[in-house]
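[User]
Um, C-alpha cells okay?
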Amino acid sequence: MNTRQIKVDQLARRKKRVRKSVSGTTERPRLTVKSTVKHIYAQVVDDTSGRTLASASSVSLKITGGNIDAAKSVGKAIAEHAKAASVSKVCFDRNGRLYHGRIKALADAAREAGLDF
C-alpha cells in the first residue's frame, strides 16, 4: 500500500471517529470544514432536517489560494451567513483534520465574528 493511500485511510478513520460524537441539531447546528490544497469550504448543517443553513468558501469569495488569510475570510463570511440564518451557536466539525493552521484560523475568525462554539 502506498503512503498516499495510507494517509487517505487515516483521514477517513479520524473523520468517522469525530462524526460519531458530533452532530448538528436544530438549536446547535454543525459547522463543518473541508480543506483542499487550493481552497477551503465551510457549511452550517442541521443534521436533523438534513438542510444546509449557510455556506461560504474561498471559491465563492473569489479568493485565490487556500492559505490562512483565505481561511480567515471564509470564517468571517460563514459567521455572517449563519447570523443571517439566525444561528449563533454551532458545534465544530473539523472533518478529521488536525486543529491547527487553516482549520484553526477559520474557527478563530468565526468566533471573532460572533459564532459561539
Notes: The domain at 3-112 is CATH 3.30.420.100 (Nucleotidyltransferase; domain 5). The chain is about 40% helix and 20% strand. The longest helix spans residues 3-21.
